[in-house]
Amino acid sequence: INYNQAELDLHIKDHQRLTDRFTELKKDLMSETQDISMSLLSLLTSWWNSHQKKEDTDLANFAKRSSKRAA
């Protein structure tokens, strides 16, 4: 798997969306208007299954291969 700048930019935006969602959940928690436990569990499960297991693993493997070639 090779990454180009556009793919890397999309990867970074994906992480930013996660950060934004955590910010929303924090606001909900601070306002004490709702229980966020199920929302948080859903977010983390979805992130793990859809992003972490595939995208981050692929990017880490690419980085490892690239650093070995540069050495």
Describe this structure in words.
The chain has two helices and no strands. By secondary structure, the chain is mostly helical. The chain has helices at residues 5-31, 37-70. Helix 1 (5-31) packs antiparallel against helix 2. The mean pLDDT is 80. The two termini are 19 Å apart. It is elongated.
Q: How many strands? A: 0
How large, in whole angstroms, is the Cα Rg? 16 Å
> β content, as a range?
under 5%
Inertia-based shape: elongated
Rounded to the nearest angstrom, the distance between the terminal CA atoms is: 19 Å
Average pLDDT taken over every residue: 80
Main beta sheet strand tally, sense and closure: none
Model regions low in confidence, pLDDT < 50 over at least 5 residues:
none
How many H/I helical runs? 2
Q: What pattern of helices and strands is seen along the backbone? A: HH
> In percent, how helical is the residue content?
over 70%
> Structural class of the helices, strands and pairings?
mainly alpha
